[in-house]
Amino acid sequence: MAEARSDHHVILRVVAKPLIPIIALFALYVHFHGDYSPGGGFQAGVIIVVAVVLYALIFGITPAMRAVPPVFARTLSALGFLIFAGVGVWALFMGGNFLDYDVLFNEEPGGHMGQHYGILMVELGVLFAVAGSMLSIFYAFAGRVTEIKDEDW
Amino acid sequence: MIGYAGADLAIALINVILLGLLFVIGVAIARMRSLFAIVMLSGIYSLISATWFVALDAVDVAFTEAAVGAGISTALLLGAMLLTARTAKPETGAMRIVPILVVIATGAMLVYATIDLPAFGDPDSPANTYVGTDYIERTPQEIAVPNIVTAVLASYRGFDTLGETGVVFAAALSVILLLGFGERSLSATFKRKKDKS
Predict the structure, then answer these.
(1) Residue A132: CA count within 13 A, CB half-sphere
(2) Whose CB among A91, A123, A148, B35 lies 3.0–4.6 Å from A41's, allowing a Cys bridge?
(3) pTM, full prediction
(4) CA terminus-to-terminus distance, chain A
(5) Looking at the complex, does the CB of residue B64 fall below 8 Å from at least one CB of chain A?
(6) pLDDT confidence of B108, banded at 50, 70, 90?
């Protein structure tokens, strides 16, 4: 890929490269800190996708598709929804109502482990579904054109 | 009604400046023809709305607006823009007056509706008395999660969030069904490489 590309955006590429893992790390922080501060699965999912989109904008859509394949994106999307619904079904199997996190771990009344982990798992489902969906939508749009040409910047 | 402690001059000034910026950007977007500039300005619009939501103490909404409105939807709009023309066609003659009349009428109705609204931050307003206080009182005992927004979103209204997740998934499915998986460009690149070698 690199041999055909002119080198106008070398500063952009150098600056963006270390930013991408930081963005992904921040997304994880937003997700696992969602109980304590603003944020949660939805925002974290979007931020993770922003990291991939930044990679696609800088290095081209094809390397991004090779790094995070479209089939992975749409599988992730479906998996997220299944995780969310699965926590609900798990609560059903434990004898509670659908999505009733209190019964998940058979704890004494007043224990909050079920709520904590239930919320975390459900938010993980939201993260997977949102990240996979947004990335699939981005690939669907961006995959139809080859690449942003130099004169279009 | 006016007794809200934070409603001092500085906050009022910030609100006026932010809303003024939003107004200017809105007018600029309406007058522009270059789609690239419009996409960029709508990203800036989202960022300023996010700032304004912070000023309104709606940090979760601001976070979502910054991530979705300024981040991902700008990229998606850019991708969509590249599939179509780069400039919008100017409207013709008499039809140009209709949208502004609709906007002015809607705006007048909204301003009229604000007369009935409670004052901003009013502790006695319906939104802050019944369900709101109930959640704030019950969350520490029942959920024990410090962020009440998360507790309401994932625990009290888990069904709602499950439906939302389904909607996001369905949106991705519809876009995939309409536009394809986007793998065509990947395979096209492979083919180009194979032809070369």
Answers:
(1) 25
(2) A123
(3) 0.82
(4) 19
(5) yes
(6) very high
The C-alpha atoms of residue A75 and residue A80 are separated, in whole angstroms, by 9
Residue type, B36: F
b/e code A21-54 from CB counts within 10 Å (16+ = b): eebbebbeebbeebbebbbbbbbbbbbbbbbbbb
Kindly state whether B167 is in contact with chain A, defined as any CB-CB distance less than 8 angstroms. Answer: no
Residues 6+ away with beta carbon under 8 Å from B6: B121
Q: What is the pLDDT of residues A49-65, one digit of tens each?
A: 999 998 988 888 888 88
Q: How far is B143 from chain A (nearest CA, A)?
A: 6
Who among A115, A140, A143 is closest to B144 (CB)?
A115
Contact A61/B at CB under 8 A = yes
Residue B163, CA distances (Å) to A38, A76, B34, B93, B167 in order: 21, 17, 37, 45, 6
B130: part of which helix (H) or strand (E)?
none
The ipTM of this complex is 0.82
Helix (H, G, I), strand (E, B) or coil at B87: strand
Hey, are the CB atoms on B80 and A141 less than 8 Å from each other?
Answer: yes
